[in-house]
């Protein structure tokens, strides 16, 4: 109990007015002394023992804890405080502070466990919309891939142009970087067509001409920010259309449709394996600063799923391919797809956005679906050329 709430403390050894004079060691005695302290002190009232929680409900704590104004660091609400005259309470007034209706629980009292509703693990996105959009894209890709190859080249070019638009739009909105979209879009579409028609040599020439067009196009605007704008433009030209050109180069082979199909299957299976295993068993973060949702268990799932799918696909869909080549291909695809996903996550984190766009419900934008495909395309193209030739 804090004595300061009861006014100035009496001198040591003093217990009220006395005609005997002060006790040895106390302050001066006498009528003036007694009159002075008679106004400041009075006998403590007798307070009944009232358990804070009432009754015997706290028997598990041994004995009920006393409560009331004597055990608080605050004065009576109806008692005088220092420098105020004493006033007798009315007969109807309560002589003691009222016990609160909802007293604060004792520190050592065990709190009843509150039942929490079971929380189910959320997938984090609209799976219905994602599956529907994925099936629709798959139908378009398969139909164009096995009917007329040129139509699939057009599908790649459209995806590249939309991806460039999403990327340059986000750069301008979030960073104020104005990468020239017109030369990028024209040069990107030309790059895909050149890769399909002329192979790697045509792709490199188209890439060089696109870079030159970006440099010249930006000269029509004020020089402020020129360096960052053209740098972003060159990055966009390499990141989206140039890497996508390797898909067109795969398609140019005699069994090109099957090579592209294997490439798509392995990338999608890798992403699905990582998502399913990571969502169910993921605990250890893979790269928490870049993508907190990715786990090491998810990477293991991606590798296992991709290697199994690779062994089957290369054995049965690729001419002169063997299962062990598919195992190696699946392993490399899982790694490259994961790195590509982390790479775009790094870009989006720097830009402060969750998705590159909203064109595909449940997926985000086109770039959110190309993130794993783009860096995987040159890897699959190169390994298939090494394993079974250019076709």
Automatic annotation (TrEMBL):
The chain crosses the membrane at residues 127-145, 151-167, 179-197, 203-220, 232-252, 258-278, 299-318, 324-342. GO terms for molecular function: nucleotidyltransferase activity. It catalyses: a 1,2-diacyl-sn-glycero-3-phosphate + CTP + H(+) = a CDP-1,2-diacyl-sn-glycerol + diphosphate. It is a multi-pass membrane protein. Residues 20-32, 111-123 have a biased composition (Low complexity). Residues 71-87 have a biased composition (Basic and acidic residues). InterPro entries: PC_trans (IPR000374). Pathway: Lipid metabolism; Phospholipid metabolism; CDP-diacylglycerol biosynthesis; CDP-diacylglycerol from sn-glycerol 3-phosphate: step 3/3. Its main location: membrane. Keywords: Cell membrane, Lipid biosynthesis, Lipid metabolism, Membrane, Nucleotidyltransferase, Phospholipid biosynthesis, Phospholipid metabolism, Transferase, Transmembrane, Transmembrane helix. Residues 1-123 are annotated as: Disordered. It is an enzyme of class 2 (transferase). Its EC number is 2.7.7.41. It is found in: Cell membrane. PANTHER family: PHOSPHATIDATE CYTIDYLYLTRANSFERASE. Belongs to the CDS family. This is Phosphatidate cytidylyltransferase. The lineage of its organism: Bacteria, Bacillati, Actinomycetota, Actinomycetes, Kitasatosporales.
